[in-house]
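pasting for ref
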Amino acid sequence: MKRLKLLLVCLFTVVTCTVFAQGGTVRGTVTDASTGEPVAFASVQVKGTMSGAVTDLDGKYSIMVQSGISDITLVFSFVGYKTIEVAVNGRTIVDVSISPDTEVLEDVLVVAYGTAKKSSYSGSASMVRSESILQNPNSSFEKAMQGKVAGLQVTTSSGQPGATASFRIRGSGSLNASNEPLYVVDGIATSTAEYSVLADRNTSTSSILSTLNPQDIESVTVLKDAAAASLYGSRAANGVVIITTKNGSQGSGRLNVNAQLGVSMVPKYFELMNSAEYYQTVFTSYFNTRQKAGYAASDAAIWANQQTQGLITFNPYSVDNPYDASGQLVSGARIIVDTDWQKEVLKPSLTQDYNVSYSGGNDRVLYFFSGGYFDQEGTSPTARYTRYSGKVNVDANVKPWLKAGMNAMYSFSIQNTEVAGGAGASPLYNSLYFPSGVPIYMTDRNGNYILDKAGEKQFNWLNPVSKDFNPLAIPYMDTHKTKNYRLLASLYTEIKFMEGLTLKTVFSPDYINLYEILFWNKLHGNGPAYGGRSERHQTHDLMYTSTTTLNFNRTFGDVHNVQAMAGYEFWHSTREYALAQGTNFAFDFMTELAAATSALAPSSWTSEETLKSYIARAEYSYDNKYFISGSFRRDGSSVFGADNKWGNFFSVGGSWRIDQESFMQNVEWISSLKLRSSYGTSGNNLGLGRYQSLGIWAAGANYNYGPYPGFGHTQFANPNLGWEKQAMFNVGLDFGFFDNRLYGTVEFFNKTSKDLLYQFPLPSSHGITSIMMNLAKVRNHGVELELGADIIKTGDWLWSANFNISSSRDKILDLAGNDDVVMSTTKKIWKVGYSQYEFYMPTWMGVDPANGSPLWKKDNGTTSEFALADYEMQGRATPWAYGGLTTALKWKNLSLSMMFYYNLGGKVYDGLYAGLMHDGADAGKNLHKDALDAWLPGNTNTNVPIYINSNPNTANSESTRFLYDATYFKFKNLNISYTLPKKWMIRTGIISDVKIYANIENIFTCFKDDWKGYDDIDIYGIGGYTQYAETMPLSRTFTFGVNVAF
């Protein structure tokens, strides 16, 4: 009997072992390592198989395995957490804790043609992640970068939705070519050319980068020195901005929905005269002039009233002659028209942004899909930007030795561009200069509206500023629309030959298609002279990049790491343009060209550009302490001269992790300490015409002003024309103290740019005024400091802060023998030894108390004639320092962040204010309230000259009268958010996360000087100069949103 029992026990044991060898069940719970809370919807997979499971709302999982439990390894992953692998070792219950992936992400930089560890990187690069970008809701990521990176200046030249923001990385290194950096999207060097004819016509901008949905961006890396950027060779002199979009990560499919609604308004207006103030100012001038001519006061008053009403084109008072012979307002006179044109034209607007994404994957396939809709109204009547976008990203491990993937982004956008320049056609211009006494709608003598046959109000078309224009009507009658179709894609394969040796090939098409509609109606504005006019502009740009690289990465003897890359890249662009236009439209409601009875001459052109490149990079590290690196690129460009098409660019760099030395091990308060330095060269070919090096002949109908067609020489060839060259030295110290609670970077750089593109003047006998040559030379040098701190990091509280400051100076070293080049349009001077942004204008000396005449500096005295005034250098537009401060406070699920930006020093010329202080030179235009302090016989102690209608004194000409210190401090952004507790989400059974948030952008700005203009100096650009109403003011925006994850 005992033998039978023993036999049964042995048989049961064998059967049991066999069953477990064939399969079994493993259970467990996945929790957050930092909070201890369960992690719902985490992915659990058996390594090397397709078998997997997903945790439930309590973080629990159960997974069937087909092989022996003792042999398997489970892979645990979830979005935002580190992926871990756990060997089962025969267990049936496996509980794990997973940690947030923050630390790993912070140590990885996306750099040229790959990634690098920040702890060992010898170049200068800064990364801004999506969380920081999305705290500033905008049509494009560019505006959200202001104040986030040391050495990066971001200026937004217009409040037009979809407008371009300008980047300057470590100053400006070019005089005539572009100073914008190279933009690289997911490894594709993309174009930032100003394609829009319409935006250029309307003195506005249209950013091609606005076609990228900021919600799809994972990070933006700014490469600042040669070691970081020179691998992009002839296009990297101005720095490189690498945009990395989101992709899939291991874990079960995750659906994310984000919706936000914003309200924008202009935070500050110019203080303009109201109807009564303007009438009195103009009347007083006419009245005094008439009396000086010997007329009686009563006659002078009647004449002055008539002249004032004739100038305004309307009598805003309830009586015919509101001012009497004593120059006082008569009894019973009241204002019946007082239009605040600024507030009528610039009104609150709405912004909507909706995005959906779905992502996930396993160890075989990762995927990310998204779709977005963005709609931003401008604060001016018809300005608007609408974008529909989509993104698909798939990465697959096809075989153990083969990877493949594709990434595609498509967008369709519509931009209605408000006319900013062009005087009368611009609603912005008219909102400043229309007198308040001009009504919006036609009114009778008592101020009552004159209705049409349908009982509707009729627009008033009479005004002293812009004949036959009304800024609240014309924008709806004319059309200024740009439709942009954009496809940006990349397909890649990566072959693994052996451990550490791979071959990667990437093909990337980039297609841009702009269709622009311009229409001027036949009834009012600019159209009646043509019987109505329409233009259709079509621009195509098909670019493609093919890149093949061989990559090597091996570690020898545990201490020697060698990384190398060699490759070939080919880039080509074919750009096509066509114009069709017509006039004399039979019906105003028909805007298609088929309705035009007169066709104007069409136009078209095609241009091509090619860039071939050989690239190489090598890095060596010893014991994770000492690092050296080098890179080389050889570029051949079709743009440059026949004798100078190829250029070589290189960089060398090294870094030393001092904290890893044995003598530092007992210094507990130093967590990290790294010294790094680099030197390298790069080039600049941005902003140069594709055929600038060639001799060009142009055909004309009247050759040499004669009656016969022929060809004329319009450009001389320059076979030696090449790219601008730059050499940069950089040294930096990265540090972290007290367990990296306090960390930062301090850097010094010096870059010299030579062979700058320069229009060299030619004698008039040549028949051509100048030729483009490589002649000039400039230098930029400066220092940068970045500091970060986790001030409080205990329990439920987290308080962090980040601060950066940058200071740089530019100096012109050579101008090809021309010591002084006056830039009359921007009131600057190029002079050897000085900044290229040096203001050059007369010095304002105030007002002559004897007669109210304006005074400017002349020799050692003054002059009241502007033409005789001395021109002097008045200081540079660029600041001596600038930077940002960001602070974030978190308590449990409640977060608050604030961002500040500051600008120290520099000058800015306020041409808008100057236009409003015309002292009567622009009779009929409205005035700033400061003009109420104009010189009068009873008001001689003033800095505002006498007001004279049709004043010949030109007192508002460009001088230091309107030149201000550009120092300011801006409270740029405030964001508050609350994430609903996990336990609430678990109860729903569907939703995993919900975050609600509110955001305020452009809260307020404090200026050092008595700034008169809009609440943002940025619209004046890097050069700090603007004239008239050439740009739409920036807005203050209140945004409310919700993010839901399923």
